[in-house]
Design goal:
By secondary structure, the chain is of the alpha/beta class. The chain is built from ten helices and eleven strands. Helix content is 40%, strand content 16%. It has a six-stranded parallel β-sheet with strand order 1-11-8-7-5-6. Strands 3-2-4 form a three-stranded parallel β-sheet, covered by helices on one side. Strands 9-10 form a two-stranded antiparallel sheet.
Length: 292
């Protein structure tokens, strides 16, 4: 059994990006600039955005964090997005989700200039991805592809079962794993909350990608020997004995499933660190495209 170490791979990617940015600086070129917009004071979102800012510093990017109060109206947020779209200094930006209830998330994501949409959420970028055209791939699916590639996991002709159909992970993963090329060329089954006999389907899978958000959902009896397990889920589970009062759990019963798997991602330290690394990679790509 091999651990797919997202922490190590994400560090490798950040080092590669830093080398590229150092070369840009040496040539007197403008370095990539990533902006993040956060509305409200959700603790998890703030932590996540702060870690993005720190990662930008590490690789030599410029970064801007724009904090807006939770009372911000949809109109005010759309105005801020327009400013960022028109700001030539900003190469890419993200709108941290979730947004407060008074704001239509879809309307906001549609307003982002696709050439600056480094999260890969705009319908134009999603459509380009579905058509196998060059585009920004959403950071988490992009990170999963990178893990599979760097650990040389064979996906051709394999049966991949994706659990969860979100637009952020499940749906794009089902498209990417079935595309021509590598990682890809697998036969994909997309399962979700209405799928019947899900265990029957997962026991036939060579690769399982679970993005459900239900702790320990994937049990050992649901997995065949030597399956590849990608656990995207990360949930805080209360635990009195833990220092913080909670532990982080994935969708997969790691202790028992890892005994059967050929490759498996841990939680934390698997897919999570890859998401920020690939966001940086998308921002570098945005900078290169704007330079052209």
């Amino acid at each position: 059994m091999t651990i797919l170490d997202g922490k190590k791979v994400s560090n490798d990617i950040k080092n590669e990006i830093k080398a590229e940015v150092d070369a840009m600086k040496a040539n007197g070129e403008k370095v990539p600039h990533l902006a993040a917009v956060i509305v409200g004071d959700d603790g998890a979102s703030l932590t996540y955005v702060n870690s993005k800012v720190k990662s930008c510093e590490r690789v030599g990017f410029e970064s801007t964090m724009i904090r807006l109060p939770h009372t911000t109206s949809e109109l005010e947020l759309l105005k801020k997005i327009k400013e960022l779209n028109n700001n030539d200094d900003i190469d890419g930006f993200i709108i941290q989700l979730p947004l407060p209830p008074q704001i239509d998330t879809q309307k906001v994501l549609m307003a982002v200039d696709p050439s600056k949409d480094v999260d890969g959420f705009h319908p134009e970028n999603f459509g380009r991805m579905a058509l196998d055209m060059s585009t920004f791939i959403p950071a988490t699916p992009f990170g999963i592809l990178e893990l599979l590639e760097r650990y040389n996991v064979d996906t051709k002709g394999k049966h991949t079962v994706v659990i969860g159909r979100s637009h952020i992970v499940g749906r794009p993963m089902s498209i990417l794993m079935s595309r021509k090329g590598w990682p890809g060329n697998s036969t994909v089954t997309l399962t979700h909350s209405s799928t019947k006999n899900i265990a029957q389907i997962t026991t036939q899978a060579d690769i399982i990608i679970s993005a459900l958000g239900v702790p320990d959902f994937v049990k050992a009896e649901m997995v065949r020997d030597d399956a590849v397990i990608i656990d995207v889920g990360i949930t805080r589970v209360p635990d009195e004995n833990a220092k913080r009062g909670y532990v982080l759990k994935g969708d997969v019963d790691f202790e028992n499933v890892s005994k059967k798997a050929s490759f498996i991602t841990p939680v934390p330290g698997g897919v999570g660190p890859m998401t920020i690394a690939m966001l940086l990679k998308n921002t570098l790509l945005a900078r290169e495209q704007r330079r052209e």
